[in-house]
Amino acid sequence: MKKVYNIAIVGLGQIGLYLYNEIRLKRRDIEIKTGKKIKIVAISAKNKNKKRKYKVNKKIFNKNPFDVLDKNPDILIECIGNSDGVSKKIVKKALNKKIHVITPNKALISKHGDKLAEIAEKNKVNLEFEASVGGGIPILRTIKEGLATNKLFKVYGILNGTCNYILSEMEKTKDSFKNVLKKAQNLGYAEPGNPKLDLNGYDALAKVKILSALSFNKKISNKVTLMEGIEYIEGKDFDIAEQLNLRIKLLGITELVNNRLFERVHPCLVKKNTYIANVSGVMNAVILNGLPVGESVLQGEGAGPGPTSSALMSDLLSILRGNIKFPFGVTSKKRKKIQVYDVNNYVNSLYLRFEVKDKPGVLSQITKQLARYRISVQRLIQIPDNTKKKASIIIITHNVKEQYSKKCIASFKSNKNIIKKPTVIRLF
Amino acid sequence: MKKVYNIAIVGLGQIGLYLYNEIRLKRRDIEIKTGKKIKIVAISAKNKNKKRKYKVNKKIFNKNPFDVLDKNPDILIECIGNSDGVSKKIVKKALNKKIHVITPNKALISKHGDKLAEIAEKNKVNLEFEASVGGGIPILRTIKEGLATNKLFKVYGILNGTCNYILSEMEKTKDSFKNVLKKAQNLGYAEPGNPKLDLNGYDALAKVKILSALSFNKKISNKVTLMEGIEYIEGKDFDIAEQLNLRIKLLGITELVNNRLFERVHPCLVKKNTYIANVSGVMNAVILNGLPVGESVLQGEGAGPGPTSSALMSDLLSILRGNIKFPFGVTSKKRKKIQVYDVNNYVNSLYLRFEVKDKPGVLSQITKQLARYRISVQRLIQIPDNTKKKASIIIITHNVKEQYSKKCIASFKSNKNIIKKPTVIRLF
């Protein structure tokens, strides 16, 4: 058996740098726990001389990331973080050179995971990506190992710490989306440049896709069934939710409906006394339903270098312990494509908020339109804004098929009395 | 590499039988996930012809459990469940014969785990016991693998489903301990014969000991620092808790205090709006605090054949995947003994309920005695029971050292006006 395992790290941003430091600090602990010695033999980042929080060994620094592959590494840790480009190329190259790969890169895995897993399997090396979902929560390992023979049928949770922080904070402080986003950015919870991929649900959906593939032993779906972000949630939505004893959460959900895959990310109104409603701030939580295990819940810090590094280290130990495994729990040959559920059949109760001109007849126009699409009203709240001659009309519908609600909502576009596109939040 | 793995199961009670059936049902799935074939080659139980829920293959039945070791098994699954006797003997024998062992037996592991781990390591086979703590929650695997390089400093939770069910049910139904216990027994949540080991905290403490050993990489402690059960909790305690917006939970807690091990199991008063207060019924939950991961929470069904079997199967897959590991995460040679915290130094706020004769001066006797031991009162509630000329006096103390509270409580013994030993519940 090999005596020393050589490690290369590409990308020394927040995550890569923290991990670099962790590995050096915990070398002795890792040796005790695995019986293997390790050595960081190469690192790479854009800027060699940038001032960093932890000092890096410049002797092993490479300007060109691909050069690290020539330094005889056994394990490559990819922390660049793009879905394509250098990230994809270097991971592919490494696997083909029989180098194990560890990455927290959900964009890469959710897009190219199937192909990369095949290459890893062919070359009998590991492709580990525990840190791509749920930060410090060992959720992927739990599905692949801890709950290995369970039949999972539904997995859902709070998968994006940025959105959860923003929603928790808006509810608590009554501050605007814009201000809270700025606060999140200042605290390092949201991307300073372009937080769009967090806010529009894309990040959570990438995680949902990885969870689906593992939970149901299927190929990763490349379809987007339903993805809605939190950009349109306003303070008044929190006020109404409060009145109804509900709370707003961005959930990622994947389930099998009649053997079809139904993946979705959207804001939900959840009852305040439920578990999921009480996961706040940057926490992540995943709830798994399966047989025979029943319901399992895992909660932990969803982001930040500490938790992410904890997950990356678990990948490293798994490799050092000689745990050569199929990246998605089963051989790629047995992972089939899965048909996707038709979202038009999705039946749900909806929260609709209309911003309207405060004129007689507007309410009747709305309710008439709803009736035309057979959407029946469970509850109606009208809040006037007299200073602006406007009003908010909030309607909680009974169960309605997505097919009808979509058409109905689109039909309001031509109504001049409705100031903007209605806000839709689904009840959970 | 071996093509077929032979499995033997001893003990066909609720757990053993369910598992036997699961393995047969999931054989194909296990093969896909591990690339290994399996075969149950021997089973053993007391009664061959007993009517069982699932049919067993009588051709492989052995009256004498030790006979299964002669049937060439690669893996022994011990489901007898005693801390000593046949359970211990057969596990030891198997390991010495280089047979992997899987067991849900917390009594065995918490008492003899260190010795058995040494034998397993010497013989390079696995000793797996995921099912011994937390039922279906893959908590041990999470500590050993998912959070492997974190520095854990506190692990606590609800570790006994029976007690949690009884406490939840007493709170909800206002029924007596005796009646709720009977109900729990009828539902199969509590041992029909002797539920004592669940109710007095012993079962939870065994789990705490296993958690400590794994979390802190130390030998299993054989000391009992603090163990209190739920037998003395009465309906009125729930009423008072309700008034104070608190809830009663039996918690198992292990932590390092100045590098000393502080293990304890006792009922706690927890704030209603906390996570742990809302884990109800037979659910189990474990909360881990560590660095750099932060706080992690795992929740799931804590008992019953389904969840237990899920955990046992994860052990089986771990072995089949060739995951030969130290049973406690690190080699036994590196696991040192740990000094135990002196419980007398434990400082906490207490809930004390006195049952007293309704006579003048009794309250003053109590408060005087408390003052003598420097226990200061934060809150006092007196509830008269006029029909019986009795009263309940409930005192919430400020922080007090265990050393003084213990002596103080003992000192009330000689007071004839105090009808029985005061009930103590610690605030969390």
Q: Strand count, sense and closure of the main sheet of chain A?
A: 10 strands, mixed
Low-confidence stretches of chain A: none
Structural class of chain A, by secondary structure, is alpha/beta
Q: In the CATH hierarchy, what is the class of the largest domain in chain A?
A: Alpha Beta
Oligomer: homodimer
Counted by DSSP, the helix tally of chain A is 13
Global geometry of chain A = elongated
Number of β-strand runs of chain A: 18
CA gyration radius of chain A, whole angstroms:
24 Å
Provide mean pLDDT of chain A, rounded: 95
Give the domain tally of chain A.
3
Terminal CA distance of chain A reads 52 Å
Look up the CATH topology of the largest domain in chain A.
Answer: Dihydrodipicolinate Reductase, domain 2
Q: Could you give a short description of this structure?
A:
The structure is a homodimer of 428-residue chains. In chain A, 34% of the residues lie in helices and 26% in strands.
Description:
Two copies of one chain form a homodimer. Chain A is of the alpha/beta class and 428 residues long. Chain A has helices spanning 14-25, 27-34, 85-96, 106-122, 139-146, 161-173, 177-186, 196-199, 202-216, 235-243, 305-320, 362-372, 402-411; strands at residues 4-10, 37-44, 61-62, 75-78, 100-102, 127-128, 151-158, 226-227, 246-257, 260-271, 283-291, 294-301, 347-348, 350-357, 377-385, 390-397, 400-401, 423-427. In chain A, strands 7, 8, 9, 10, 11, 12, 14, 15, 16 and 18 form a ten-stranded mixed β-sheet that branches. In chain A, strands 3-2-1-4-5-6 form a six-stranded parallel β-sheet, with helices on both faces. In chain A, strand 4, helix 3 and strand 5 form a beta-alpha-beta unit. The N and C termini of chain A lie far apart (52 Å). Strand 12 of chain A pairs antiparallel with strand 12 (294-301) of chain B, so a sheet runs across the interface.
